[in-house]
Amino acid sequence: MPHIVVKLWPGKSEQQKQELADALSQDVVRILGSSEGSVSVGIEEVSPDDWRDQVYGPEIDAKQATLYKKPGYSM
Predict the structure, then answer these.
(1) What are phi and psi of 3, to 5 degrees?
(2) Given 3.30.1300.10, 3.30.420.380, 3.30.429.10, 3.40.220.10, which CATH number is that of 3-66?
(3) What is the mean pLDDT of residues 22-42?
(4) What is the 3-state secondary structure (H, E, C) of the chain?
(5) To the nearest whole percent, how much of the chain has pLDDT over 90?
(6) What is the pLDDT of residue 32?
(7) What do you get for the CA distance between the two ends of the chain, in Å?
(8) In angstroms, rounded to a whole number, what is the distance separating the alpha carbons of residues 34 and 67?
(9) Which UniProt keywords apply (predicted)?
(10) Of 2, 48, 58, 71, which is the active-site residue?
(11) What does the domain layout of the chain look like in residue ranges?
């Protein structure tokens, strides 16, 4: 606990993905007080052609109530 899944378009390097996973993990430890060993991060690449059907529809549009950062809105 917790497990984070990041879905993104292909094209990012392995180094970029590892840096993102490390940063997310560090923030979870800092903010939630989780132990480093309990955090896992998965990164799934989804093609732009499949984004609407596989990510936007089921993960974003259908789950608006659970989004803490919505696309198109600045933080």
Answers:
(1) -115, 130
(2) 3.30.429.10
(3) 97
(4) CCEEEEEECCCCCHHHHHHHHHHHHHHHHHHHCCCHHHCEEEEEECCHHHHHHHHHHHHHHHHHHHCCCCCCCCC
(5) 93
(6) 97
(7) 25
(8) 21
(9) Isomerase
(10) 2
(11) 3-66
Q: How far is CA 67 from CA 30, 42, 61, in A?
A: 21, 18, 9
Structure tokens at 48: 């732009």
pTM for this model (two decimals): 0.90
Q: For the purposes of burial, counting CB atoms within 10 Å of the CB of 21, is it exposed (0-12), middle (13-18) or buried (19 or more)?
A: middle
> Which structure tokens are listed for 27?
């923030």
List the structure tokens of 43. Answer: 């990164």
For the question of residue 2 being annotated catalytic, the response is yes
